[in-house]
Amino acid sequence: MDADFDLGAFEHYTSYDPQSGVVSSYLVSLKNQLVRFESTGNEFIFGKWEAVFMERSRKFDPDTIEYLAGKYGFRVLENFTDNKKWFTDSLWIKK
Question: Are both 13 and 38 inside the same structural domain?
Fold first, then answer.
């Protein structure tokens, strides 16, 4: 990105709502800092503990994944999970 990010000055943070299955991800600045993009000349100031929203995802159980795939004209080709089966990346193919 041609920027002078100090990756060690940010921490990844997530929160999970078990009722909705929604996971939100943030990067949190661990200090006051200025990040410069050489290619554009843009500068961004991050305050200590400032959270930058990155992603929102939703967790589904295997039955719901199968249901949603079928509902929208797909079939599940394969589900990839972590060791604890807490997260799934699901590969679908058009029927």
Answer: yes
Q: By the 8 A CB rule, do 69 and 76 touch?
A: yes
Question: Residue 37: how many CB atoms within 10 A of its CB?
Answer: 14
What is the Cα–Cα distance from 23 to 14, expressed in whole angstroms?
7
Q: Indicate if 49 and 65 belong to the same structural domain.
A: no
C-alpha distances in angstroms, 42 versus 10, 21, 35, 65? Answer: 19, 37, 8, 42
Is the overall model pTM greater than 0.85, yes or no? Answer: no
Domain that holds residue 1: 1-59
CB 76 within 8 A of CB 64: no
Q: What is the percent of the chain with per-residue pLDDT over 70, rounded to a whole number?
A: 100
Please tell me whether residues 52 and 75 are part of one structural domain: no
Number of separate domains in the chain: 2
